[in-house]
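I am still getting used to backbone structure tokens and would like to learn alongside you. To get us started, please write out a protein record for me. Once you have written the record down, we can walk along the chain together.
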Amino acid sequence: MAGRELRRGRTGGAVVALGAVGCLVLGGLAGCGGSSGAATGGSPGGSAAVAVVREAADALVDAGSSKARTSMEMATGGTRVTIRGEGVYDYRKRLGRLKVLLPQDPSGTSVRRPITELLAPGALFMKNRGAGVPADKWVRVDTRTLSDGNLVTGGVTDPFAAAELLRGTRSATFVGRTELAGTEVRHYRGTADLHEAARAASEANKGPLGAAATGFATAVVPFDVYLDGEGRIRKVRHRFSFMNGEREEPVAVASTTLLYDFGAPADVRLPEPADIYAGRIAEE
């Protein structure tokens, strides 16, 4: 599979997969080469709030699937861009399909085509990748090699990885009740540790979260999460930071995931080997 995977050495940035999508946007700018009972308690903070947040990923598995919207804001050197995605996710099979919308290119002269992304344990598949890839072919990224643990790679954060990151919650405070899209939710704010998250995560996410713990500028991730009455995540926002490898500039990333329509069909079919591009990825 070596020829079919976008490997670490192919780009020069601190987070290699930003060469896949994030650097498609920032390249010219930054130079980057089952817990329903617990959820109904309203603790103001401390261990009770930590326990509620840590169990959020289990509540998603109980739900089975959902629709998802994502937003990833990247800021460096006074420039800010936003990448958006929308699709479905199966939390039991760890499979997702998202359509990712990129902003205009840095010159502002054209709008890039949406990229279709398939999320799977150990792999990210992208279609309409551009840069010389045939329109009917997929690019496969081995996410086990990524220093960001596939939290930033494709311009979206894998919804279940975002949930499992919360297994590493070290501190949390109950902020209050509010509504999201007509659903009453409880807002918690806190910090999670990527090392702890990796130790507590499912087998598929142990390696990626562990890689992110060393690949990011800090393993401590601030978050805001909104849980419904069944403990399911309705919205989660993480803030990541890493150093741009070429210019030694900090890149701040705010990743927001909205989950809704739980139980929606999420039939995700991965590409056949013959449909995966085996050539070299051209530089943007």
Residues 203-215 form the longest helix (13 residues).
